[in-house]
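Researcher: Here's a chain I'd like modeled. Treat it as a single chain, no partners, no ligands.
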Amino acid sequence: MVIFIFIAIFVMFALWASGIIKIEEKPENECHSKNDEYKQQAPDPVDNRISISDAKPDKEEKYPEHDPQIFRKNTKTNNMNCDKYIFSGKYKETGKIRKNKLIYVFEGEDVKRCILDAGYEEPIEYTFEPWPEASVKQKEILYDRSGGKYQENMSLDDASAMIERYYTHTWNANRDLFAFANKMRVPVTYYCNYDYLNGRILHDLSGEDLIAYFAYVIFCMRKNREVRDLTKEPLKETFYEYAKERLADENFDIIKYIHCHDTDDIFKPRTKAFEITKEYLDTKGLL
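Model: Modeled as a single isolated chain. Structure tokens:
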């Protein structure tokens, strides 16, 4: 038996030596699992985003499930939805001069007209206040994530919004919600995603506008709808009726509650603000 085994081994060796039988050896650099292969083939989601430097305001391409990127006109310094000015002027209610006041001027608006509409009168003086530039660290992150393609003169807010989009794999917010922010005079960058924009709107609004918008967002959440421009919503009056009712309630300050909690927390079920708002919408047959 041993002799037969020895003969078989000898025959196999002879065949291998003659080249009839070949034993493939896998190179070390090709040794990987199927999962590794999938990872190598999977595209980086960032590569499919809108190029910050190459995209144009009037670009007609349609991107799935989100609106095209908005670009501010007539400027290459930032992509904010407004400019900042520092001014001084006589405040009508008191007749006293106020100095170093900040005002936001949106596209198509006149600086002096905005100051007059804010309750001031001559003498009025104002100077342009540039938005803070992106930090060195932000520029390094954007350069790495965009493959070297990014707007050199991005503002601090522009860079923050783009970095958040890169790391959360999200798109810019829709055009209608940006339009609402402009109407409500909420300063934001057009690069921000929905969460970023929604948080800024909730932070900057007050009074009936804040409560109505809060109710509108809950309505959209429950109906699986996209949050857009509240001023164009057919049910707008219902949300403002709710706002008036809430303001009359001395037992619960919903405005303070919204402003003092994180955006993610105020929209969680079983929180007081969420539940009383949902109950109102239920009674109106909206949910």
